[in-house]
Give the backbone structure.
Amino acid sequence: MSLVFACGEHETELNRLGGPIPDFDAALPDGASDAAGDATSDADAGPAEFLPCDVAEVLKNKCQRCHLDPTENGAPFPLVSYSDTQADFFGSVVSDRIKNAVETDFMPATFIMLDPPVETLTADEKKVVLDWIAAGAQPVDTPCE
Ligand code: HEC
């Protein structure tokens, strides 16, 4: 009699997980909640995210002389992976900082004297970067190369 009463106490919790709970399984509430936890973490694991090739190409050719991982010549962060462009930099997303820096020609950092000299962006390269950011700086699900 007391066993039936104990199962009744578990009923509310277990029924959230869906389906009728057989009496004997009610003795394993831990297993039941583990199953629910797994379902949640599966939903969190999204597809891998990559930079579109044309954007990756510009960053590689014109930015990674400094924005490498680890960085060179005093650059504050790497610009190598998609997640690099989504990082936080003093309260804003790096891609928003890129928009500003490229629009104003602050970047590439031609104020740094290197040999050979730091190259500016061509009009096409500028457009590739700014169009991508204007469209929401979206990732693609396959890497290039
Ligand atoms: C020659 C080295 C060099 C190159 C090439 C270069 N950067 Fe930088 N970048 C720096 C340095 C150094 C800073 C820090 C400048 C400062 O804050 O005074 C910086 C800062 C930045 C910042 C932060 C600006 C802010 O909001 O404070 C962004 C964004 C950025 N770079 C993007 C780029 C992009 C995009 C490219 C390529 C198109 C590029 N950089 C190429 C050296 C470089």
Notes: The pocket of heme C is lined by residues 62-63, 65-67, 73-76, 79, 97-98, 100-102, 107-109, 112, 114, 118, 121 (CB under 6 Å). The radius of gyration is 26 Å. The CA atoms of residues 7 and 53 lie 58 Å apart. Residues 1-19, 24-29, 31-42 have pLDDT under 50 and may be disordered.
